[in-house]
Specification:
Blueprint lengths: L3 H20 L7 H25 L4 H23 L4 H29 L6 H28 L8 H22 L6 H77 L3 H18 L8 H16 L3 E6 L9 H20 L6 E9 L2 E9 L13 H12 L3 E7 L2 E9 L1
Parallel strand pairs: 1-2
Antiparallel strand pairs: 2-3, 3-5, 4-5
Length: about 425
């Protein structure tokens, strides 16, 4: 027989499944498979709760164990199975959700216990209403806003997660206080409302901080892309000037060959044309890769390195097309080579960059080595926004970034699953 407590358990765990499905804004699996995972999770967490309710084993200790069990299962399913986001970002979203869930639980408990009889179905009805209202608010208003402000930000969520957990603990303490209070008067409602207001204010600041970091990231990327564009335009301009000079000088070369021909000096003609061919070969722009994105980025930074007196060498074997987005490839290589050029400028002597890109099976491997400041070591590498962006892009493709520095040589190794 379905009693009110059992109905409440079914609704609570069913709502957890619905919420986590909706919160998985970038799903790791198909929508159908994700829905099945959420349904299975709801069943796994609800089953022991229903068993304890039916058998009468529902004391404070067992309730606490079941509470922790539900939290661990829902957290693990969302962070490690449902969401395709970086783990700490997913953990932050989950922490925000449990804080909101705790607040809704408090409000439902207060209203049901103070205004309705214990056997009334008011508790789960109020929970349904509150969850439906907040879920609709999330789906139609907050979801798109969060995706917009966090679109390019995959790192920096560790501290945000910690703050969210602290808010959750604060709300949980108030929930526990209300649970052990027989009469909920002015103090209970004031504590609940004040805690929610404070939590909402903190979250507003956190989301504003996320938006600021996202704007800063976009600014840095635009700045880098503008620098690359200027580099390429400068290269094209130099090429055009060189072409004009070659057309101008070609007439003089013809006159020289013609003069040798008139004198019947074939050896002089052959020698002159051979020297001319060698000279022109040196002026031809190096093509580093059949992949246009890789070639453009590497060409731009090769030119920048040459202008700064840095010896640049590239060994690239990469397909013209792969599954890595051009934007991701451009950002990644630009960050790697930007750091390499800047690192070389800190080197005392022998400034050089060695770049190697290769494919092994379904993996794309990027190795970049450059001279750097002699006191730079693996332990004191400064991880700015460029390296943070690099790690986020690598993780997006299930890859990894390994950095090391020793004896004046910095190494960046990237492995991507193509």
């Amino acid at each position: 027989m379905l009693t009110n407590p059992i109905i409440k358990i079914i609704i609570v765990h069913g709502l957890h499944g619905v919420w986590l499905y909706c919160l998985a804004m970038d799903k790791k699996h198909s929508s159908l498979f994700s829905a099945l995972i959420c349904a299975a999770m709801a069943f796994i967490t609800a089953a022991p709760c229903i068993y304890c309710e039916v058998t009468g084993n529902d004391n404070m200790l067992i309730s606490s164990v079941l509470y922790i069990f539900t939290a661990l299962v829902t957290f693990s399913v969302y962070v490690f199975i449902l969401s395709a986001w970086q783990k700490m970002k997913s953990a932050f979203v989950y922490a925000v959700y449990v804080s909101l869930w705790t607040f809704m639980t408090q409000i439902a408990e207060l209203i049901a216990n103070d205004f309705f009889t214990p056997v009334s179905p008011a508790l789960w009805i109020v929970r349904l209403i509150l969850n439906t209202a907040f879920l609709l608010l999330f789906l139609f208003v907050l979801r798109d806003k969060f995706l917009k402000i966090s679109a390019n930000l995959e790192q920096g969520y560790g501290m945000l997660f910690v703050v969210s957990i602290l808010i959750f603990f604060l709300l949980t303490q108030i929930l526990t206080y209300n649970a052990f209070t027989d009469e909920h008067g002015y103090i209970s409602y004031t504590l609940t409302i004040d805690a929610f207001t404070a939590g909402a204010a903190v979250y507003a600041l956190l989301f504003r901080f996320i938006a600021h970091l996202n704007e800063r990231y976009l600014y840095e990327q635009i700045k880098m892309q503008n620098a690359l564009l200027c580099e390429r335009l400068d290269l094209y301009e130099r090429s055009e000037l060189e072409a004009k000079r070659m057309r101008h000088d070609f007439r003089h070369h013809n006159l020289m060959v013609l003069e040798y021909a008139k004198n019947g000096d074939m050896d002089a003609i052959i020698k002159y044309l051979s020297e001319y061919e060698e000279e022109q070969e040196k002026k031809i722009e190096t093509v580093f890769s059949a992949n246009r994105t890789i070639n453009n980025i590497v060409s731009a930074y090769a030119s920048r390195a040459a202008a700064r007196g840095i010896d640049f060498d590239a060994d690239i074997i990469a397909s013209a097309h792969n599954s890595i987005k051009d934007t991701d490839m451009a950002v990644m290589l630009a960050n790697v080579l930007e750091n390499a050029v800047n690192g070389c400028m800190q080197a005392e002597k022998d400034r050089r960059i060695r770049l190697k890109i290769s494919e092994k099976g379904l993996k794309l491997i990027i190795v970049c080595q450059n001279t750097c400041a002699p006191d730079l070591t693996t332990d004191n590498i400064e991880r700015g926004i460029g390296l943070t962006s690099l790690s986020a892009t690598a993780e997006k493709y299930g890859g990894d970034v390994i950095l090391s520095a020793e004896n004046g040589m910095f190494s960046c190794n990237i492995i991507l699953n193509d």
